[in-house]
């Protein structure tokens, strides 16, 4: 017997679902002899790569984790007192283990199917309530990408609402965080909005060209101002005021809402979320009730289900970008759900008393530090402060000596200028840390600390009375009931049990690529070497991150065929926006500022036109043909019509209809001929990697959804990462950052942190490392195999709307369901009925209304695909019963879906179908039943009666009296 020595545990076999036997059977069903034959019939030969991907050889999980431990070990974990919106904090272990590290939470999809997402939705209601209470405003969303982009969203919102027709200026306090000003400038410039940066104490608010303002509270240098008079004067002049703030500080400081602010933005990172070298962190936006119909981002609202029970869902969909398209004022698609959940749970676990105590401890330690430093002769210039001291040294030489001594002691301060030093304390600061800081100053100043530092038990707050918070917050029982770990654990588990995730079954959403997020990929995310770095720490302390960035950028360049990549955009929509700005920057630099027309296919995702408008472009829609492809003749006509004004084409490839359009090279050349550029939406890169590439088809820029193709989990609706790749002549226009020299780039930032959501990049880094080039190509082929297997099994039951010239689909397909309307069955009925079978619905009514778009991904096994097929065929039979009149048109199993346990556990069952048919339609459902938490939700009721925060149930005894008054909404 001969024994061969080769790796026994290859990661690609763990990632791809079907084994060799399953693949052979699936190929027979499809009617081809090999995967390569299937690929040849599916992917046009003209766009195939001429050589394999040149990527490092695949590593086993064990080998990768050993390698990555060494890389992460290059990061230096200093004590960080830099502040600037990022602070060390402590995520309670019970939350880390049971949410952040739990696939039941991090693999769930955006809660569009609310009946099987009640746990996450309740967690997000908690988050919204926390933000509303602390800011003193009336409504909040859940959530935005970070503080800078939240601030930019209010700029857009208030610019669109301003009654001053010619107002194009926005006042920005010079004490707003510098990275926020950077993002604001990036977002304002394409729209012709001028930022007026200055001192809020001397601002000329009588200027009629100013439509709004933004302030920082506490300010970037730590000062705390009472903005009441400023806000009042701004309102007198018809201006809106946003206040960027710190949620932890608001436990002690008067909230901006009580000062009259129109909106409040910020970052909830301080509530237990690791710094992670800049992200991901949940930004927040709270505002007045009058703006509820225009506030960007997702709002979670309370409604009722078919049984009249309270149920949560995403509210006010009609104001979202995918509905409004080029009329949208925001392109938000991804939220930061997982991070919002963490921050909200932090508030639930600690409650108002503990959180206030954290703030009190920070302030008293800061006071102790100030006293000690004054004793050494150091000047502190902030009259009122919460956690930040602004220190002025006698000379630049002394400040430089301090920096050297501090870093030698493993400490980072903020250096405002040559003589001013900032120190921001945080939740994890202890008296020993304060003593270490004082010791550094003493050594540099050549002075002696005469007595050991002690923390005073009581400190009198010296702020003016107007700055001291007197209003209550977090009064709802949810924030006052789960303070023991046992109770908290049970509460989180109860919520988890209400949500369907990839831990239960496949989520076959077209265009969303819900694939395996392997545990080995996730492990490094919670390592201190990854989570513990401040984004503005000296670059030499983050050499591990530097290596990750270099490698990942190079690998993504190889995958896309492009010359350069920026990792900064922290969502797919942000990547779109950054890509369009790169194109705009290129045209502007050549003197072609008049090139502002973006051609966008009618089938494009709603973020495409929204992003184009935000980038200052004019959208011209290109028709689609009956077979779902771009109408090339219409494209050529419009490219010729707008030749002198043409900026770009936005195109998704394969198409949103799940087809590799064979004319794509001609399409790109049509745009290039008159001087335009091609932006490719990377949503469907899972059908490209290793087989073709954006550069090969002729694109100039492409964003990549790392939260899709490259395995970062969806987290219930975020975090996401949307880096962009570009050809060489667009590289100078990639995003830069005001505080960090990102490879010499000076173009404006699109997110607050220099490298966006840096702490989750290790997930994609691990995926590529463990798959290698051959593995990535195999994943793409398997995704196409799985999709065509589903098509072969389902097309006799549900017509497949679009296919390629050989009758193949790409990695996804659209099932025709519109003809069921004749029997009164809507596509929504199918989506809800799938819940009874234990499955999340495919994408509903996109890109074609009344259809289902299915993407199985490569990670699903044949067994799981067959279970899903069985469910879909069974549902088709149930529809046939209605069509034939054997089932009642209204009282049938589809119209009443989903069925909860409470629905069927009634004494008198009066429906014309059995309980067993309702809840156990297959043997698998009987054995592994997932019970929806609520019956079908009445969305319209929730929009008419908007409730978006936790409210005690006793206030709803008389529902008619307690409901929020209905309004008709905006007239758009």
UniProtKB/TrEMBL annotation:
Cofactors that this protein relies on: pyridoxal 5'-phosphate
UniProt-listed SUPFAM superfamilies: PLP-dependent transferases (SSF53383)
A molecular function (GO) term: pyridoxal phosphate binding
Keywords: Oxidoreductase, Pyridoxal phosphate
Glycine dehydrogenase C-terminal domain segment(s): 779-899
One cellular component (GO) term of this entry: cytosol
EC code: 1.4.4.2
Keyword Oxidoreductase found: yes
Catalytic reaction list: N(6)-[(R)-lipoyl]-L-lysyl-[glycine-cleavage complex H protein] + glycine + H(+) = N(6)-[(R)-S(8)-aminomethyldihydrolipoyl]-L-lysyl-[glycine-cleavage complex H protein] + CO2
UniProt modified residues of type N6-(pyridoxal phosphate)lysine: 708
CDD domains xrefs: GDC-P
Span of domain Glycine cleavage system P-protein N-terminal: 13-441, 479-739
GO BP terms: glycine decarboxylation via glycine cleavage system
Family statement: Belongs to the GcvP family.
Subunit text: The glycine cleavage system is composed of four proteins: P, T, L and H.
Function (record text): The glycine cleavage system catalyzes the degradation of glycine. The P protein binds the alpha-amino group of glycine through its pyridoxal phosphate cofactor; CO(2) is released and the remaining methylamine moiety is then transferred to the lipoamide cofactor of the H protein.
Database matches in PANTHER family: GLYCINE DEHYDROGENASE (DECARBOXYLATING), MITOCHONDRIAL, GLYCINE DEHYDROGENASE, DECARBOXYLATING
Record protein name field: Glycine dehydrogenase (decarboxylating)
Origin species: Hymenobacter persicinus
């Amino acid at each position: 017997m001969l024994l061969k020595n080769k790796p026994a545990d290859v990661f690609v076999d763990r990632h791809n679902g079907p084994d060799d036997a399953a693949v052979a059977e699936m190929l027979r069903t499809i009617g081809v002899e090999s995967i390569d034959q299937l690929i040849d019939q599916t992917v046009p030969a003209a766009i195939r790569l001429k050589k394999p991907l040149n990527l490092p050889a695949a590593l086993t999980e064990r080998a990768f984790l050993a390698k990555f431990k060494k890389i992460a070990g290059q990061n230096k974990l200093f004590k960080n007192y830099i502040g600037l919106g990022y602070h060390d904090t402590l995520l309670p272990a019970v939350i880390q283990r049971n949410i952040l590290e739990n696939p039941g939470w991090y693999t769930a999809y955006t809660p569009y199917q609310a009946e099987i997402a009640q746990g996450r939705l309740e967690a997000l209601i908690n988050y919204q309530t926390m933000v509303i209470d602390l800011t003193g405003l009336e409504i909040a969303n859940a959530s935005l990408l970070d503080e800078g982009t939240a601030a930019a969203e209010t700029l857009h919102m208030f610019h669109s609402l301003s009654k001053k027709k010619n107002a194009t200026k926005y006042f920005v306090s010079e004490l707003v965080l510098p990275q926020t000003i950077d993002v604001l400038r990036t977002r304002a410039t394409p729209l012709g909005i001028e930022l007026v940066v200055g001192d809020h104490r001397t601002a000329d608010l009588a200027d009629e060209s100013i439509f709004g303002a933004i302030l920082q509270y506490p300010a970037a240098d730590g000062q705390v101002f009472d903005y009441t008079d400023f806000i009042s004067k701004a309102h007198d002049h018809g201006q809106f005021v946003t206040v960027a703030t710190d949620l932890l500080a608001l436990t002690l400081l008067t909230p901006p809402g009580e000062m009259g602010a129109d909106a409040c933005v910020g970052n909830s990172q301080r509530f237990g979320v690791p710094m992670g070298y800049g992200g991901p962190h949940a930004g927040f936006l709270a505002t007045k009730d009058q703006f509820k119909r225009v506030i960007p981002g997702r709002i979670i609202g309370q409604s009722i289900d078919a049984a009249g029970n309270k149920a949560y869902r995403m509210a006010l969909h009609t104001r979202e970008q995918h509905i409004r398209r080029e009329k949208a004022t925001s392109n938000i698609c991804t939220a930061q759900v997982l991070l919002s959940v963490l921050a909200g749970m932090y508030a639930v676990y600690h409650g108002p008393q503990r959180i206030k105590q954290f703030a009190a401890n920070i302030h008293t330690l800061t006071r102790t530090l100030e006293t000690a430093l004054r004793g050494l002769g150091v000047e502190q210039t902030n009259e009122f402060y919460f956690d930040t001291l602004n220190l002025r040294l006698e000379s630049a030489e002394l400040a430089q000596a301090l920096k050297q001594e501090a870093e030698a002691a493993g400490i980072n301060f903020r250096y405002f200028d040559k003589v001013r030093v900032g120190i921001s304390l945080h939740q994890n600061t202890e008296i020993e840390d304060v003593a270490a800081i004082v010791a550094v100053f003493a050594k540099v100043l050549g002075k002696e600390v005469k007595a050991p530092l002690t923390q005073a038990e009581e400190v009198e707050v010296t702020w003016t009375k107007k700055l001291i918070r007197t209003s209550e917050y977090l009064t709802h029982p949810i924030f006052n009931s789960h303070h023991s770990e046992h109770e908290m654990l049970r509460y989180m588990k109860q919520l988890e049990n209400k949500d369907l995730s990839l831990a239960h079954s496949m989520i076959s959403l077209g265009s969303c690529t819900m694939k395996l997020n392997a545990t080995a990929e996730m492990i490094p995310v919670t390592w201190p070497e990854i989570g513990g770095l401040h984004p503005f720490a000296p670059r030499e302390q983050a050499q591990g991150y530097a290596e990750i960035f270099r490698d990942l950028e190079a690998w993504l360049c190889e995958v896309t065929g492009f010359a350069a990549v920026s990792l900064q955009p922290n969502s797919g929509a942000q990547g779109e926006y950054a890509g369009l700005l790169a194109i705009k920057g290129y045209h502007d630099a050549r003197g072609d500022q008049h090139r502002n027309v973006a051609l966008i296919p009618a089938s494009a995702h709603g973020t495409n036109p929204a992003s184009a408008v935000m980038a200052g472009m004019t959208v011209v829609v290109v028709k689609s043909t009956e077979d779902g492809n771009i109408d090339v003749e219409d494209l050529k006509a419009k490219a010729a019509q707008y030749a002198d004004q043409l900026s770009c084409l936005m195109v998704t490839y394969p198409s949103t209809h799940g087809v590799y359009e064979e004319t794509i090279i001609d399409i790109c050349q049509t745009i290039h001929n008159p001087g335009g550029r091609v932006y490719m939406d990377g949503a469907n890169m899972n059908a490209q990697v290793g087989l073709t590439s954006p550069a090969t088809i002729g694109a100039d820029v492409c964003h990549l959804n790392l939260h899709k193709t490259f395995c970062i989990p969806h987290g219930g609706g975020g975090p996401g990462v949307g880096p962009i790749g570009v050809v060489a002549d667009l590289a100078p226009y990639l995003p830069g950052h005001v505080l960090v020299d990102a490879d010499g780039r000076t173009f404006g930032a699109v997110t607050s942190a220099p490298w966006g959501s840096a702490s989750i990049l290790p997930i994609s880094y691990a995926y590529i490392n463990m798959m290698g080039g051959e593995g990535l190509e195999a994943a793409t082929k398997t995704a196409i195999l799985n999709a065509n297997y589903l098509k072969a099994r389902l097309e006799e039951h549900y017509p497949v709307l679009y296919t390629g010239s050989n009758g193949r689909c790409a990695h996804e397909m659209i099932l025709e369901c519109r003809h069921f309307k004749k029997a009164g069955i809507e596509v929504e009925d199918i989506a809800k009925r799938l819940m009874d079978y234990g499955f999340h619905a495919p994408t509903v009514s996109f890109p074609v209304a009344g259809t289902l778009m299915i993407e199985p991904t490569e990670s699903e096994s044949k067994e799981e695909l067959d279970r899903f097929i069985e469910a879909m065929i069974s549902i088709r039979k149930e529809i046939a019963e209605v069509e034939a009149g054997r089932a009642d048109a209204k009282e049938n199993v589809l119209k009443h879906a989903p069925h909860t346990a409470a629905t069927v556990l009634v004494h008198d069952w009066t429906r014309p179908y059995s309980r067993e048919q309702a809840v156990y339609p297959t043997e698998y459902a009987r054995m592994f039943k997932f019970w929806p938490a609520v019956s079908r939700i009445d969305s319209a009721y929730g929009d008419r009666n908007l409730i978006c925060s936790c409210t005690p149930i006793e206030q709803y005894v008389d529902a008619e009296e307690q409901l929020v008054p209905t309004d008709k909404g905006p007239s758009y």
